[in-house]
Amino acid sequence: MEDGLIVVKEFLSMNKVLIVTAVEAEKDAVKRGLDNNSRFEVIVGGVGLAEAAVSTAFALSHSTFSTVISAGIGGGFENKADVESLVVASDIRAVDMGSETQTGFLSLEELDLGTSKYDCDITYVEKWRKQIETFGVDVQTGSILTTTTTTGTVQTAHKLLQRVPEARAEAMEGFGVAAAARRVSVPVYEMRAISNVVGPRDRNEWKIKEALAVLEKASGTIQEVF
Ligand SMILES: O=C(O)c1cccc(C(=O)CC[C@H]2O[C@@H](n3cnc4c(=O)[nH]cnc43)[C@H](O)[C@@H]2O)c1
C-alpha cells in the first residue's frame, strides 16, 4: 500500500511546474491566468538573479518539478519587442557576467570560467509561441538577457545588443532561475511581458498595468504546453 502511495506521489510530481516571479503583482497576474490547478506552483522569488536563484533552489529542494519557468515583466529592445508584447526566451543569458578588458568584454565562456547562457528546448519554445499567439498576444522568441542593473542609457542598450544581437528583452531574474533549475537537470523557460523600452529610464512611462494584463493572458497557455 505504501509503495502504491509513493508511486502516485511520484506520478503527480512528474508534471508539476514551478513558476518564479520577482514580485507579488506578477505572481497575481500569473495565477489569474492559470486555472486553479494544483500542478502549478507560483512563487515570488525576489528581485535580481541572486534572490531568484536561492528561491528557485529552495523550492526545488522541497518538491519535484518537471519544468521551471521564470515569468514577469521586462524591458524590450527597440525594434525587437514592443511595449505590451510578449517575449519567450530561446535562451537565457547573464549578459554582464564576465570581465571587462581594455579591448572589450570577455564572457565566462571566453574566460573558461563557466556558462553565461542556458538554451531552452526549442520544440517547446515554438509550441508555446504558437499557443500564445492563438490567445491574441503579440509574441516573439529570442534571447532574454539577465542584467544586474536595469539599463538606463541608449549607449548601454547598444552595447548589450552588440554583445547579443539576437536579444529581444532584458530582465533581472531569468539566469538565476535557470542556474538553479539546470543544477538539478530540470528544463527551464522564461517569458517577459514588455512594460518599457530598454534605454533611458523614465519609470512614469512604464506600462506596468498593461504588461501585467499581457502576462495574465499568456499565463493561460502554460497548462496547454507544459
Ligand atoms: O510597481 C508595480 O506595481 C510593479 C508591478 C509589477 C512589477 C514591478 C517591478 O518593478 C518589477 C521589477 C522587475 O521588472 C523587470 N524589469 C522590467 N523592466 C526591466 C528593464 O527594462 N530592465 C531590467 N529589468 C526589467 C525586472 O526583472 C525586475 O525584477 C512593479
Automatic annotation (TrEMBL):
<dbReference type="GO" id="GO:0009116">
    <property type="term" value="P:nucleoside metabolic process"/>
</dbReference>
<dbReference type="GO" id="GO:0009234">
    <property type="term" value="P:menaquinone biosynthetic process"/>
</dbReference>
<feature type="domain" description="Nucleoside phosphorylase">
    <location>
        <begin position="42"/>
        <end position="225"/>
    </location>
</feature>
<dbReference type="GO" id="GO:0019284">
    <property type="term" value="P:L-methionine salvage from S-adenosylmethionine"/>
</dbReference>
<keyword id="KW-0474">Menaquinone biosynthesis</keyword>
<dbReference type="GO" id="GO:0008930">
    <property type="term" value="F:methylthioadenosine nucleosidase activity"/>
</dbReference>
<comment type="pathway">
    <text>Quinol/quinone metabolism; menaquinone biosynthesis.</text>
</comment>
<comment type="function">
    <text>Catalyzes the hydrolysis of futalosine (FL) to dehypoxanthine futalosine (DHFL) and hypoxanthine, a step in the biosynthesis of menaquinone (MK, vitamin K2).</text>
</comment>
<dbReference type="GO" id="GO:0005829">
    <property type="term" value="C:cytosol"/>
</dbReference>
<dbReference type="InterPro" id="IPR000845">
    <property type="entry name" value="Nucleoside_phosphorylase_d"/>
</dbReference>
<comment type="similarity">
    <text>Belongs to the PNP/UDP phosphorylase family. Futalosine hydrolase subfamily.</text>
</comment>
<dbReference type="GO" id="GO:0008782">
    <property type="term" value="F:adenosylhomocysteine nucleosidase activity"/>
</dbReference>
<keyword id="KW-0378">Hydrolase</keyword>
<dbReference type="InterPro" id="IPR019963">
    <property type="entry name" value="FL_hydrolase_MqnB"/>
</dbReference>
<dbReference type="InterPro" id="IPR035994">
    <property type="entry name" value="Nucleoside_phosphorylase_sf"/>
</dbReference>
<dbReference type="Pfam" id="PF01048">
    <property type="entry name" value="PNP_UDP_1"/>
</dbReference>
<protein>
    <recommendedName>
        <fullName>Futalosine hydrolase</fullName>
        <ecNumber>3.2.2.26</ecNumber>
    </recommendedName>
</protein>
<keyword id="KW-0326">Glycosidase</keyword>
